[in-house]
């Protein structure tokens, strides 16, 4: 997204190689998003290239996301963070879910270094985070 003041309801991205959601505009608000990492990606073609399921560009100062979900279908990969953001108080994510549907991979964190990991078919839910301070609200591991 390369425009300012965008409001999105239900943003869904499937089976893409690259940053699945790439947000470059100011004052974005996303209510409900889902990114499905394709079963065709590998550590080399996705993770090692620095791609993320949802990336808010460096320099963006205000962005809000409510109910983001990242689902991994790729086997044998380790993703350090599903969502990448700049460190600023105006960028916030609430109620973020990560899930490893492959049964053999790991997503270490939901947003930057916040949240528990989801691996080997597991799920983790991050109730809220202010990415500027990496402070988190309650986390639930399923």
Describe the structure.
This protein has one helix and twelve strands; from the N terminus they run βββαβββββββββ. The strands form two sheets. Strands 1, 3, 5, 7, 10, 11 and 12 form a seven-stranded mixed sheet that branches. A five-stranded mixed sheet has the order 2-4-6-8-9, with no helix packed on it. The protein is mostly beta strands and 142 residues long. A hairpin with a 6-residue loop joins strand 8 and strand 9 (118-119). The chain has one domain (7-141).
Task: Please give a quick description of this structure.
The chain contains one helix and twelve strands.
Helix content: under 10%
Largest sheet: 7 strands, mixed
Number of helices: 1
The tally of beta strands, per DSSP, is: 12
Order of helices and strands: EEEHEEEEEEEEE
- What is the radius of gyration computed over CA atoms, rounded to a whole number of angstroms? 14 Å
Dominant shape: globular
| Mean pLDDT, all residues | 89
Judged by helices, strands and strand pairing, the structural class is: mainly beta
Strand content: over 45%
Low-confidence spans: 132-142
| First-residue to last-residue Cα separation | 32 Å
What's the layout of helices and strands?
Blueprint lengths: L6 E8 L6 E3 L4 E10 L5 H5 L6 E3 L6 E10 L5 E7 L6 E10 L5 E6 L6 E2 L3 E8 L4 E2 L2 E3 L1
Features:
five-stranded mixed sheet; 142 residues; single chain; mainly beta
